[in-house]
Each structure stands twice: as structure tokens, then as C-alpha cells.
Amino acid sequence: MSALETPPSATYESAFLKACRRDPVPYTPVWFMRQAGRSLPEYRKVREGIPMLESCTRPELVTEITLQPVRRHGVDAAIYYSDIVVPLKAIGIDLDIKPGVGPVVEHPIRTRADLSQLRDLTPEDVSYVTEAIGLLTRELGPTPLIGFAGAPFTLASYLVEGGPSRTYENAKSMMYGDPELWADLLDRLAEITAAFLKVQIEAGASAVQLFDSWAGALAPADYRRSVLPASAKVFEAVEGYGVPRIHFGVGTGELLPLLGEAGADVVGVDWRVPLDEAARRVGPGKALQGNLDPTVLFASTEAVEAKTREVLDSAEGLEGHVFNLGHGVMPSTDPDALTRLVEYVHTHTAR
Question: Using CA atoms, how far apart are residues 6 and 17, in angstroms rounded to an integer?
Fold first, then answer.
């Protein structure tokens, strides 16, 4: 049967979506954050000379890049190739991704008047996303496609700081010193983020992941008071679609219960907390995703397998488990190590 003839139920019955729903699986499904990217020579070849944000607006290129790790590694889900600042760029925010730096915002948001930069996102603003996902779902057949977006706090941290930050002093200064402005900023970003996820789901994404990459910079009380309401608004906005919602952040061990509370069906765990302990913190009713340390992949095959067994043993008895790294694939990772890892997890967990 060709991909075009694949029945709609094939994706629904995939190991990845079953694990997200906490249904029995034939083996533990695997995908990797940043699986499509600089670790793949074929990615570097097709991206040559094309700026990052421009590459995200070319449907055929997005399709090719998204498919590359599925072809090479045999992962159980594709993740849409994009960037968390794409919806901000689409509504006219003056920003660019500087090589070796990251997103840089020309006019940071520091005052209430600056909020006027954040207009509503419409499907027409990101028509290339709809087109690319249409191409992808036809090519992927039964393999699910994960859509994604940056969470309001992480987007706000870039917008207020003007770029990447280690301390988030401007963002936290607003959060502590002008909580009303901060709340309004995150609420606007929640609306933009929800609209961006809706476009992806309506185009055919089978699941979505909210990346709150920098939420680990917050104390739990600050997260609950100043961030959770906006993230919850995003998850609530897409709840009616019935697709699994994944929530991930880095250094969020102390926030795990709150990440689940915000409305996720699957909570992503970085490598700092064992999965059995993460399950205790998150509580029942959620699947977990993770959580091999990405740097383990630079060690010998034997060491990778040993550390992978530790993760899988820690996941024994979880309601649902999607194997992933505890953060993104590092650019200098050997792609063959990822391919071997997928095969090892599939073989080791075959039921």
C-alpha cells in the first residue's frame, strides 16, 4: 500500500501515538529533538547558503529536511522543521537568527507601548506551514508528524532580552516589577502560540510539543504565578482537537508537577531526573518523554547501550513512555550513533 492509500487509522495506531495515549505498545517509540538539523550532512547540504528563517518558509525544503531523520534513523515520529520564533517573524517582529548567537530582536519589548508589535497571527501569515504539512503527511504515511511551538515564557524571554540570555535579568525584572505588563505580554504570546499550533494541527499534525526551553530558570512559585496561566491557555486552546500535547523544558526537575498541571498529556524530562522519580513528581495520568543525556552519544556504543538501558529500566512500569534525549541532538553528534540507538531501543523493548 502506498503512502497515499494509507488509511487514517494507521497514524492513530502508531507506537508513538499509542505511547502518548498511554496505550500498550509493541516497543518503546523513539524520536529526537533536533533530529533534523546540523548533525546530518544531508541537512547541511540542502541548507547551504539559505538563512535559517528563510528555510522555514520554503515548503519543499521543509518537507525534505523533516523527512531526512525518518529515512536515516527509522524514528517513530517526524517533527516539523521550523523554529520557535517563526510565528513572531510572521507577524512582523523585526528579528533574525544570527549564526552562533541565536534569535536577535531589533526592538525588544520593554514597555506597554511595545506590546503593539504583537498582533494576532492568522493562517495566511504562515500559509507555507499549511502547504508543507500537507506535503509531509502525504509522504509520511503512517508515521506521525509532531507540530511545535515555543511556549510564552521562552518567547517572552527572547522578546524582552532582545536575544539569548543566561540570566534573564530584563525578563525577570518585568515579571517581578511590572506583573500586569508581564501577564499581558504572556497572554498575547499564548494567543499567538495557540494560533500557530492550530494551523499545524488543522493541516495534519498528529501531536504537538510546547517547548518552554528556558523555564528552568524559574522557581516553582514564580512559574505557577507568572507563567503557568499562559501555558495552560495554549494547551486548553488545542485540547478540542484530541491530539497529544507534549510539554518540555530544560532544567525543569523542580517544575515537573507544574508542567503536567499546565495541561500536557506527555511531560518531557531532561536527563537530570530519572524517569521513575519524574513519574512520582508528575503524578498519574501522564505519559513521560525522555531522557538520555545527549552527550552520551559521544561515548562508545557499549557505553551508549548501558546508559540507554538505565533509562529504559527507569521507565519500567510507566503508564506511557516515549524515548528521547534529555535535550536536542548536538550538532557534532555522529548520525550513525542515533541510528544505532533507535534500533537498540526498538530491539531491547520489543514486547
Answer: 16
